[in-house]
Amino acid sequence: MLLRSLLLLLVLVGAAPRCRADDGYRLWLKYDLIADAGLRARYRAAAQFIAVEGETEIAKTAAAELQRGLQGLLGQPVPVVAKAAESNRRGIVLSVGPPANVSGSSGSRDGYRISAQGNTLRVVGGSGAGVLYGVFALLRQLQTGQALGGLKLSSSPRIQYRLLNHWDNPNGTVERGYAGSSIWKWNELPQRLDPRYTDYARANASIGLNGVVINNVNASARYLTLEYVQKVKALAGVFRPYGIRLYLSVFWAAPKVIGGLKTSDPLDAQVKQWWAAKAEEIYKEIPDFGGFLVKANSEGEPGPQDYGRSHADGANMLAAALGPHDGVVMWRAFVYKANSNGDRFKEAYEEFKPLDGQFSPNVLVQVKNGPIDFQAREPFHPLFGAMPRTPLVLEVQLTQEYLGMATHLVYLAPLFKECLDADTQTKGPGSTVAKVVDGSLDQHRLSGIAGVANIGADRNWTGHPMGQANWYAFGRLAWDYTLTSAAIATEWTQMTLTHEPQAVATIVNMMEKSRDIYVRYTTPLGLHHIMGQNIHYGPEPWLAQAGRPDWTAVYYHKADSVGLGFNRTATGSNALALYSPGVQKQWGNANTCPLNYLLWFHHVGWRQPLSSGRTLWNELVTRYYTGADSVTWMQQRWASVRPTVDAALHADVAARLAIQRREALWWRDACVLYFQTYAKQPIPAPFAPPTRTLAEVKTLVDLYQLK
Ligand code: BDP
Question: What architecture is domain 520-566+603-704?
Fold first, then answer.
């Protein structure tokens, strides 16, 4: 009897549909069986074999990925055959051929063409990597339910170096990381290769990324020791079949710290020799090593200025060490001095603009999207367009340091696009940041874009399940910045969350609005840098004392009895003068400056009427209140898609939205109560004043900062 029940149980378990909760590990590469039987049958008919012509290592990776994807999506194995079957069977042929005929930068060897020809669907890549990108593009067609008949697709990346920057430390922590510890297990390397490294490489390749800086810009010299070079080599070996090159952030003072030299002066012969030998040593182990990323003379990091040398002297010395090996230096422009009378906005520009034309050909200067530091909204960095003789890498942040960490739902593609599409007007209208970055505006051979990763050891990689969309969107835009944020959100949602059209539309709509909503309840109208000290979370607009004046909030918002905002016009810091005349015209007049940038450039009277018809005070309060209320709207939208999304994932996002709502109210109350002490005006109807006092709200910050 017992045996019979046991047997019955086994049979039942075996027969149960395999519906495991979605833990998010598979990202957008789920390859679940296509539910629509008709569509599945059409795909099955078209994909009866895979053939690879002229194999390269990466093309083999591509064939394996295609096989894996088709097996999952079609629910049946598809054989990889040696040669394109001459029979009348229909299948997919992968080959390396002439680069895709698509306008783009010098990265066109990475391009691909997909076309239906007779019985076969041909994926032709300009290189093995191009084949791999083509395969992922084809899989994306299947994952999003597109027709294959008459399919004609071709694409080529517009930007050559498409990198993730990890801010990971040797001890397993991640600077500004909110998704658990680092995915790199240094204590296990090089002997054990966590399978996760391969899935990570697959994910990056699937969105067209081709480089990874694996460690923090506040770099430990350790990575340059022989012991670590062996570990790094093992990782590079995992990335290589996916077309991904590995790069290191380097600690400027390494020659002193691990090299035993007395100096790290870039013009010192022994220092030059030390770096050249180090590069030699790395390339011996990792022949396709990408190069160095450098944060120097910034936030206490050492650098060439310690020896009276310039950033160019430092970058060029490293470039000379890497040059013989085809490596590049990405030298960061994120520098600012502690000057209470200055304007941090101008400092990177003032240091780097005079160096334009002095950098070696294999140096790129890496510039953050905005002049301060990854705020929820910043004007584009004035260096874009101002250094025509230097290739500039655009650095954006995927990890949500200032955007609610891993609890607030903020889809970042609109933020990235806002910067890429911004018109610097330096060479007439249409001189967009994107054209500076892709090298087309000034005919640069090199071009690059970098995203500070939001990835950690959490099972779902990004902590917030929707954070995956930011990783995804970064890669897609790095490949092709002309894609719209909505199109990217749509394909990501279909591949990751649901195929139900109404739900897809709802989720995409919510994602598209999420960044503006976040700006409204945290830093509306161009407010910036008023967040909690150190942790950069929650509001702390009253912060007046910190390690440096430009780490306080009052330095930036300048609230007083007259009004609010940083006057950066000619009567103030004159940072506006760093932009071209057209841009100055657009932002220079408080009456015509778009409201989203108003307080970035102007000190505006509390009772000043704005283009919205409201006074500054009333507009400010309106934005804080409607922003916080919009989180409730997001909660409702998310609730409406519940039947169509995995239950565990749905509950996870719903819980994070509840936190977001609570914290939006925190931001709202903190900011309106604090600014009210200067504006001295009531909360306008129809909004109800906060039910707590400023003193009560202030204690919340202490709670978060564990004071
Ligand atoms: C800031 C971060 C800090 C980074 C720095 C950087 O607060 O942790 O080290 O940028 O980019 O956003 O170097």
Answer: Alpha-Beta Complex (3.90)
Class of the 24-155 domain?
alpha beta
Q: What is the 527 CA–ligand 1 centroid distance (Å)? A: 20
Question: Is any atom of ligand 1 closer than 6 Å to the C-beta of 551?
Answer: no
**368 pocket-lining for ligand 1 (C-beta < 6 Å):** no
The domains of the chain are located at 24-155, 161-496, 520-566+603-704
Mind telling me the catalytic residues? 299, 373, 401
Per residue in 515-543, pLDDT tens?
999 999 999 999 999 999 999 999 999 99
Prior bond of 643 cis (ω within 30°): no
Angle ∠(210,216,221) on CA atoms, nearest 5: 110
Q: Best substitution site from 166, 169, 173, 176 to test ligand 1's pocket, by max atoms within 8 Å of Cβ?
A: 176
pLDDT along the chain (707 residues), means of 10: 45 42 94 97 96 87 97 97 74 84 58 92 94 98 93 95 98 98 98 98 98 98 98 98 98 98 98 98 98 97 98 98 98 86 93 98 98 98 98 98 98 98 98 98 97 98 98 98 98 98 98 98 98 94 94 97 98 98 97 98 98 98 98 98 97 98 98 98 98 95 69
**Is the CB of residue 268 below 6 angstroms from any atom belonging to ligand 1?**
no
Task: Decide the pairing of beta strands 112-117 and 120-125.
Answer: antiparallel
Q: What CATH code is assigned to 161-496?
A: 3.20.20.80
Residue with tokens 């399919």, as numbered in its chain: 151
Q: Which residues contact 307 (CB under 8 A, 6 or more apart)?
A: 263, 264, 265, 266, 267
Q: Tell me which DSSP letter residue 668 carries.
A: H
Predicted model pTM: 0.96
Atom of ligand 1 nearest to the CA of 373: 12
Q: pLDDT digit string (tens) for 645-672?
A: 999 999 999 999 999 999 999 999 999 9
Cβ burial 142-161 (10 Å sphere, 16+ → b, else e)? bbeeeebeeeebbbbbbbbb
Q: Would the CB of 395 count as within 6 Å of ligand 1?
A: no
